[in-house]
């Protein structure tokens, strides 16, 4: 797993674009966010590719988080909040940022209502209840990532979760199934069996047919 610490004192857009280059390949990137004050928001044209990254992105949030760090964190595939962390949303008299709106839409109607009508500080427990975060984690404890889970399975789960926001469930399911299939040896064994004119031998070690292929 790749790791990165978001540094609030650095220029947000420059830091984010450099970070985005690291999620172009399959893998898992964990970004640690510390206390962050409000600043200029990132344009959606920059954030949108982050929500479609090839790698699985994970936010590990400590302290109070405001835009622009908040937008990057909430647009990660998995969001974990350390106990005492807070999401500092824009107030009801302020226009919400595109990243926050996207994250609230992904979370559902309750999150949208909370963010658009009330805004302000969202506690750790409320963020989990609204679906803006997966879980709260005690400080010092490892994130509850499925370390025994294959990258293919984690990526598949990520694709299915993304489909809720993208409204492309059928396409996401097809892509997820394709990735799971090609994470096994079945496609290559099937091709070899065809070329060798024999029945394929899959993981069970049994051939589906001992008759030569036509």
Fold blueprint:
Layout: E1 2-6, H1 12-20, E2 28-33, H2 44-50, E3 56-61, E4 64-65, H3 69-74, E5 78-82, E6 86-89, H4 98-107, H5 109-118, E7 120-123, H6 124-130, E8 135-137, H7 151-166, H8 169-182, H9 186-195
Helix pairs in contact: 4-5, 7-8
Word description of this protein:
By secondary structure, this protein is of the alpha/beta class. It is built from nine helices and eight strands. It has helices spanning 12-20, 44-50, 69-74, 98-107, 109-118, 124-130, 151-166, 169-182, 186-195, and strands at residues 2-6, 28-33, 56-61, 64-65, 78-82, 86-89, 120-123, 135-137. The strands form two sheets. The chain has a five-stranded parallel beta sheet with strand order 1-2-3-5-8. A three-stranded mixed beta sheet has the order 4-6-7. Strand 2 (28-33), helix 2 (44-50) and strand 3 (56-61) form a beta-alpha-beta unit. It starts with a strand and ends in a 19-residue tail after the last helix. Mean pLDDT is 82; it is low at 168-173 and 204-214.
Order of helices and strands: EHEHEEHEEHHEHEHHH
Cα-atom Rg, whole angstroms? Answer: 21 Å
How many extended strands?
8
Show unreliable segments.
168-173, 204-214
Shape: elongated
Average pLDDT works out at: 82
Taking the sheet with the most strands, its summary is: 5 strands, parallel
Q: Residue share in helices?
A: 40-55%
Strand proportion = 15-25%
Which structural class fits the helix and strand makeup?
alpha/beta
Count of alpha/pi helices: 9
Distance between the termini: 45 Å
Instruction: For the largest sheet, list the strands in their spatial order.
Output: 1-2-3-5-8
């Amino acid at each position: 797993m790749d790791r990165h610490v978001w540094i609030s004192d650095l220029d947000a857009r420059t830091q984010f674009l450099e970070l985005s280059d690291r999620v172009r390949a399959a893998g898992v990137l964990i970004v640690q966010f510390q206390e962050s004050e409000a600043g200029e928001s990132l344009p959606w044209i920059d954030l949108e590719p982050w929500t479609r990254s090839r790698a699985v992105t994970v936010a590990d949030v400590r302290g109070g988080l405001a835009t622009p760090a908040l937008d990057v964190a909430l647009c990660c595939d998995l969001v974990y909040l350390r106990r005492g962390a807070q999401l500092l949303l824009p107030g009801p008299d302020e226009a919400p940022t595109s990243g926050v709106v996207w994250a609230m839409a992904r979370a559902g109607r309750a999150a949208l209502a909370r963010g658009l009508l009330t805004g302000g500080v969202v506690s750790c427990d409320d963020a989990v209840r609204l679906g803006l975060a997966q879980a709260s984690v005690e400080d010092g404890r490892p994130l509850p990532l499925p370390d025994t889970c294959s990258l293919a399975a984690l990526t598949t789960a990520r694709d299915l979760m993304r489909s809720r926001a993208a409204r492309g469930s059928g396409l996401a399911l097809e892509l997820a199934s394709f990735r799971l299939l090609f994470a096994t040896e079945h496609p290559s064994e099937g091709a070899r069996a065809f070329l060798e004119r024999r029945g394929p031998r899959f993981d069970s070690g049994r051939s589906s047919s001992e008759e030569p292929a036509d």
